[in-house]
Structures are given as C-alpha cells and as structure tokens.
Amino acid sequence: MNETVVPVLPEMVAQIVDHSEMKLIGIPCIGLNDMGSKYQLAKDSLLGLSAHMPQIIEASVQYGMWPQVTGQNIPDTHAYILCVEVTTFDGIPEWFARMTIPAQRCVVAASKEGDFDGAGRVIDAYIAEKGLKVDHQGYPYTICERYRYNAEGFARYSLPIVSE
C-alpha cells in the first residue's frame, strides 16, 4: 500500500497526511526564470507517460520535490523536480530523476487557486497551534507540494513532522 487514502482535502484547512515510503521519478526544472513554462512542460510530459510506462501508479498525482542542498535560495540554481510515484525503478529511462522518499507525516493545506503563500500561512498556524516540530531531518529531498488533478488540485506540504 502506498499513500494512505485521503479524501479530497478541504480548501485552506490544514490536515496531517501520512505517506508510506515512495519511489518517485521526475523531471527537474532548474532556475526560477520562466518556472511556469518549465513546470507546464514537466506536467504535460509526466501525464503523457502513463500510457507508455506501466510503473507509474497514477500520473494525475504529481509531487513537487525540493532538494535539500545549498544553492536552493539562488534564483539561477534553484531546483524543483516534478515527480510521479512508481512501483519500481526497473525499466525507467536513466534520464529521469529518481528518489526514494522515506515514510513521513506532513501538514498539508489545499488551495484550488494554487496560493502557495496562503497555504503556507495556514500550515504554519496549525503547526504552532498543535506544538508540532517539523524539519527536513537530513532527507535529501522534501515534498513541497502535491497536485491531485482529479481531486483538490494543489496542496502545499510542510517539512516532515518530527516524531518524538
């Protein structure tokens, strides 16, 4: 079993979402200049691949991943990797980014309008109210957002919740 079944997320309401370990393949978008076009090309490419790659679990569920490295705050070297979950890396062409994301819990808030900052404020308030601690915990990649095109659309993620 992969992701815990989550009903359509309510608009701008923070919730905790649990993920089992995930194998992801993706298309990197490098540099903030013209990021919208880079993202759209990656999205369309990933949606079209499912007919040719049976390893893809659900092409309409895509994850935006951030590498946890220096240079992420520099506009020209910022990296964003749009990914889909796969059952296996076997048979995946080598030009795709590949990552295995450990099981984790995150605070998530949906926004049909894709309001990244507004969803972030909702998440931050929830974390503060519940007294949660979040951190990248040494993970090389973290989920920044998820798109479920057949459900709520855009949802922003917190860093993983630290288990105590």
Task: Give an account of the 3D structure.
The chain is α+β, with helices and mostly antiparallel strands and 164 residues long. It is globular, with a radius of gyration of 15 Å. The chain has an 8-stranded antiparallel beta sheet with strand order 1-6-8-7-3-4-2-5, covered by helices on one side. The longest helix is centred in the N-terminal third of the chain and has 15 residues, at 35-49. The two termini are 25 Å apart. Helix content is 18%, strand content 33%.
Produce a short descriptive summary.
The chain has 164 residues and is α+β, with helices and mostly antiparallel strands. The chain contains two helices and eight strands, in the order ββαββββαββ.
Strand order of the largest sheet: 1-6-8-7-3-4-2-5
Average per-residue pLDDT, rounded, comes to 91
**What is the overall shape?**
globular
Distance between the termini: 25 Å
Q: Structural class, please?
A: alpha+beta
Alpha carbon gyration radius: 15 Å
Oligomer: single chain
Give a quick account of the main beta sheet: strands, pairing sense, barrel closure: 8 strands, antiparallel
